[in-house]
Each structure stands twice: as structure tokens, then as C-alpha cells.
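Field guide to reading this record: the first block holds the primary sequence, the second block holds the structure written as C-alpha cells, and the final block holds curator observations. Each block starts with its own label. This record concerns Transcriptional regulator, catalogued under organism Sessilibacter corallicola.

BLOCK 1 — SEQUENCE
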Amino acid sequence: MIKESGRVVSVEEDHLWVQTIRKSACSTCSAEKGCGQSLLSKWGQEPGFIRVDLNGRDHSKYQIDDTVTIAIGEDVLLKTSLALYLLPLVFLMVGIFVGHSLALAEAYTVLTGAVGLVAGALFTRKVLNVYGKSQSLEPVLVEADEDVVYWAEGAK
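BLOCK 2 — STRUCTURE
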């Protein structure tokens, strides 16, 4: 389970809106000052807002500006990462294969690969929009006295 702390920005009857700051591994790297990736990650650090279901908890227990811990399963991260990165690449390779199979000129083969990449990105977006609404993929609220068992029950 991957945990992240965040600040409550809104409390509603059945869910919280939590603001998190996206962190980068660059802050722990010794080459931080001389790395272009570190500079790019500092520019892109903006808060993210996440909707977290209360799963039957009393909403009056939470106040705006409270710090809470949310969690998501490693398998969820792995599946979404594979979909996000692998599906467009598969479509790219299929596009290149189709262009090559049709004995097209090199420029047209590259073009069919680019069309495949765009199609893969659109397909991935569609898949993640459809399956992303599944409750098992949503982050859950973890409290200090709870353990992984509650997360597994809440994810069902």
C-alpha cells in the first residue's frame, strides 16, 4: 500500500476533498542541483485534489485543514502505469508493422506509427475513463489506528 499525507480542503456528507503536493524523488538525489529532471519537477509541482470516500465514517469528525493519510494499492499503481505507458507503445508498434507490411515508403511507415501512437493514447484514455471509476481503484482514507485489513475491505 502506498500512503500519502494530504490536507482536507472540503468536507462533504460521504467524501472528503484532499489536497496533496506531488513529490519528486529528486529531493533525495545527490545530483539534484545539476540535473535537468530536477528543474522540470520543481516547475511542475502543483497541488492535486483527490476525492476520498468516507466509507461510512462520520463526516463531522473531519475539519478543513486537517491532515489525513490516504492510500492506494501497489497493484492499482502497477495496472494503471502499464495501461498508461504500454498500450500506446503497443499501438505504435502495430502501426509501424502495418505500414511495413503494406510496403509503404519509410515516411508513410513512420506516419502509420504516429497514427498508431495517437490511437493508442486515445484508447488508453477511454479505457482509464471507463475503468477508473471503479471503487477498487480509488484511494482510501487510512487512520492511525487502522491497518491494511481495512483498506482491503474498503476496496471491495
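BLOCK 3 — OBSERVATIONS
Residues 145-156 have pLDDT under 50 and may be disordered.
Helices lie at 36-43, 74-101, 106-131, 148-154.
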